[in-house]
Amino acid sequence: MSDAAFRRGFSCLERFGLSFDAWLYHPQLFELVDLAGAFPATTIILNHVGGPLGVGPYADKRDEVFQAWRKGITALADYPNVVVKLGGLGSERSGFDWHRRTLPPTSSEIAELLSPYFDFCIEKFGPHRCMFESNFPVEKRANSYVAVWNAFKRIARRYSADERRALFHDTAARVYRIGPARTLR
I need a surface site. Which of 116, 147, 159, 185 has the fewest CB within 10 A? Predict the structure, then answer.
């Protein structure tokens, strides 16, 4: 993200009114902080809550990863041009090992494990800069679509009706400029 050629291309997004979906891992969050600061007029959507890893050198280091991830999320939240997609932690890279289970996790289990990440993002960014997302069909090996969305509902219970509308709809509609369907004549 610091490469000059990448940034020249990135600079075109503002001119054309486009946004940028950033899919990266937690060790790269500060690179995104720098990019957000350099291009404050370009909307950046952070996918999968910034990809906290739980495999490879990050296996069995969930607390350490969580603390490093929190620092990156806190720094990103200072940039109003950044919004966060809440989801995408059911893949193998997150290290929850749901794909190894005989039975997939329940919505209660998913909500319990994801709440610390989602609640922290919502605390730092506010619900109007956060949106729930699925990562299907990629996560199909680990959990069910219904269980994931029911987990989101469980997590959202503690927020107001206005905040839930933002998390489930309004933020995505605003950021992706999704409006009512128009009929062609």
Answer: 185
Q: Calculate ∠ Cα 87-96-109, nearest 5°.
A: 70
End-to-end CA distance of the chain: 43
Is the pTM higher than 0.85? yes
| Cβ-based burial of 9 (10 A; exposed 0-12, middle 13-18, buried ≥19) | exposed
Handedness of CA 122, 155, 160, 181 (dihedral sign): positive
Q: Rounded to 5, what percent of the chain is helix, strand, coil?
A: 60, 10, 35
- The helix/strand/coil state of 85 is strand
pLDDT along the chain (185 residues), means of 10: 97 96 98 98 98 96 98 98 96 89 93 97 98 91 92 98 98 92 60
- CA–CA gap between residue 62 and residue 26 (Å, rounded): 12
What gap in Å lies between CA 31 and CA 39, rounded to an integer?
13
